[in-house]
Amino acid sequence: MATSEKGILNRLYVVAACMFIFAVGVGVKLLDIQFVEGDHYRNLAEERTVRSFKIPASRGNLYDAKGNLLATSVPKYDIRFDAVTVSDKNFQENIVPLSNSLTEMFGKSAAYWSQYLRQARANGQRYLTIAKNLGYSEYMKVKSFPMFNLGTYRGGMIVEQRTVREHPLGKMGERTVGYERQDENGYFTRVGLEGAFSSYLRGTDGRRLKQKIAKGQWKPISDNNEVEPKDGYDVISTIDVNIQDIAHHALLKQLEYFEADHGTVVVMETKTGEIKAMSNLGRTETGTYFEKRNYAVYESHEPGSTFKLMAMTAALEDGVIDTSSVIDTENGVVRYYGRPVRDSRHGGYGKISAAKAFEVSSNTAFTKIITEGYKDNPAKFVDKLYDMGLNSKIGLDIKGEGSPRIPHPKDKNWNGLSLPWMAFGYGVSITPLQTLNFYNAIANNGEMVKPRFIKEVKEWDKSILKVEREVMNPRICSPETAKKLQKMMQQTVEKGTAANIYTPNFSMAGKTGTCQVEYWIEPGRYISSFAGYFPAEDPKYSCIVIIHKPKRSKGYYGNIVAAPVFKQIAQKIYTDTPVMDTLPSLDIQNDKVTDDFDAYFAKIDNEKIVMPDVTGMPAMDAVSLLENLGLKVNFNGTGKVNGQSITAGQKIKTNQQVNLNIG
Q1: Per the UniProt record, which residue ranges are transmembrane (predicted)?
Q2: Whose CA, among 39, 191, 285, 663, lies 20 to 30 Å from 269?
């Protein structure tokens, strides 16, 4: 018996010892947690219940050149209710007047709001939604409601502010205005002006403490921020919303008519390089158009005949040709290594001057000019193009500029067809804005200025940065060469391939382009283009229009598809600030253009043109010239034109029948 009691007692001692050791272990651990690792666990607990949240700074405003908003940040407020923190007294005293106020502002009955709030209190809800996306004035009104006017703790009102970016232009110029977005991994996507100048617009974020309440919900601890956000700077762009509107709608109208795949228009101020408009429209599956990609900046492609200006510049500068040099177009077809180069006009143009070859855009003439002029040293031609900067990017602020490609004889893929094909814009690749930059330089008598998108960065009325005119190349060619090229481009509009857009009311200069694209997929896909400037005598704006893959049955030549867009843009810009003595045929009331702008523009668009004097011209040249003007020509026979049913200088409508009497 004694032995049994002794065994039990020993076991009790063991249990007691174990419990003592366990208690000591717990005590040691508690001391360790409290004093040794106390700071760590306190921080961990606080992190799980209280956290500092980022308050995005309000982005600066983006303006056009005349102070019109292109993008602005608008504060929006979400109102929520903490039904637990309000005392019974405050809740009971204010529930009825608060419900009445909410009814007055948001609708629904006072009974609905009373039941909604009481149910939240009964359920212990601490993050009840009252209203979302309120403007500032609406937020201030809600803040004055009974109970809510007691503040965060006594009144239970929770306010969360966020900033929404709005674009007053809507979808027009969307890719040009652009955006900055951040994905879930922290990577930024920056597009257009918003992306290019985000470092100025973004500002500095603030911080605000919030407390975790339930179900992953966080509510602000107080109405004040720990670190106040600093708003971004305002950016004044070079865009003119009026010109942007003109360019957008002129391009859209043409894309819709020709059912084209996509297109772009850029308008640049000649002397300064300021981009006044940039429209990029792509076709959807349903046949509508929207700002899909910034084709003007990123899309490098074969330019076709607009590249003839670059080829002619090199040839004139190197002295391998002069404007009066005569070239035989050989019935409109020449061959290189068995591959034909054809003129768009069947039978060619006979023997013509280099200047005439430019005006009528003769492929055969240009390929002969360049091939014969540089056959012994093709690198000289390409190096001249390189010297003019055609193989380099402009270096735009807007991201994603496409790379030009000008092949060189040192390249592995250079062959016998490279030089003749380059002469008329095949085998090379260049973006629309890079092409326009070159044309603008010729309009500037050889001085190439860098295209720019902003004028100034401001903080309120204080100027932070002014962006000045930048000269990329003071002389891509001699002033004498530039004058010759200007004359040829003006003649192209007056009596060349773009004669269909000629008007005596104001002068234009430029070059048409038509280029096959994706010919390895199927024939019949084209890029139609026109690049030029206006007025021809004293250029103020340069402009490029490129339309990809118009419906072939409706037309695909550059003068038919792209040039009319250029004309519409030029006309409407002129009518914004019309020079009265240059518009004698327009109806003027009290020295002002009639207020009905649409009717006024329709009058310009349908205006009669002046019949050119074709007496003495070869018959086929006369027919070609008149048809380019949009006239219906009744002609049979060969020989010289010695008379016509309408005298030269008489105004005629574009749909009028013209009879040529051939002697």
Answers
A1: 12-31
A2: 191
List, in order, residues 6 or more apart from 213 with CB less than 8 Å away: 82, 126, 127, 219
pLDDT in tens, 479-515: 999 999 999 999 999 999 999 999 988 899 999 999 9
Q: How far is Cα 422 from Cα 388, in angstroms, rounded to an integer? A: 16
Beta strands in 82-222 (DSSP E): 128-134, 157-166, 179-182, 188-191, 206-214, 217-220
- What's the CATH code, domain 241-574? 3.40.710.10
**Contact status, residue 622 vs residue 641, Cβ threshold 8 Å:** yes
Which pairs from 42-51 meet CB under 8 Å and 24+ separation? 48/212, 49/211, 49/212, 50/209, 50/210, 50/211, 50/212, 50/221, 51/209, 51/210, 51/212, 51/218
Residue 297 predicted with pLDDT over 50: yes
Tokens representing 538 are 């004293």
Q: Is the pLDDT of residue 147 over 50?
A: yes
Q: CB neighbours of 64 closer than 8 A, spacing ≥ 6?
A: 70, 237, 239, 240, 241, 244
Tokens standing for 611?
Answer: 């019949």
Burial of 158-187, coded b for 16+ CB within 10 Å and e otherwise, reads bbbbebebebebeebbbbbbbbbeeeeeee
Q: Are strands 454-459 and 339-342 parallel, antiparallel or unpaired?
A: unpaired
Q: Is the distance from CB of 431 to CB of 475 less than 8 angstroms?
A: no
What is the CA 282 to chain-centroid distance, rounded?
12
Output the CA–CA distances (angstroms, integers) from residue 106 to 101, 127, 138, 151, in the order listed: 9, 19, 11, 21
CA-wise closest residue to 627 among 653, 606, 654: 654
Contact yes or no for 102/198 (Cβ under 8 A): no
What is the topology classification, in CATH, of domain 590-660?
A: Trypsin Inhibitor V; Chain A (3.30.10)
Are 510 and 489 contacting, i.e. CB atoms less than 8 angstroms apart?
yes
Instruction: Round to whole Å and give the CA distance between 262 and 255.
Output: 7
What pairs with residue 188 in β-bridges?
182
Q: How confident is the model at residue 592 (pLDDT cuts 50, 70, 90)?
A: very low
Rounded to whole angstroms, the Cα distance separating 68 from 236 reads 9
How far apart CA 238 and CA 541 sit, in angstroms, is 13
- Please check whether residue 641 is in contact with residue 614, taking contact to mean a CB–CB distance below 8 angstroms: yes
Rounded CA separation 624/502 (Å) = 15
3-state SS, residue 347: coil
Question: Residues spanned by CATH 3.30.10.20 within the chain?
Answer: 590-660
The segment(s) of the chain belonging to CATH 3.40.710.10 are 241-574
CA angle (593, 594, 600) in 5-degree steps: 90
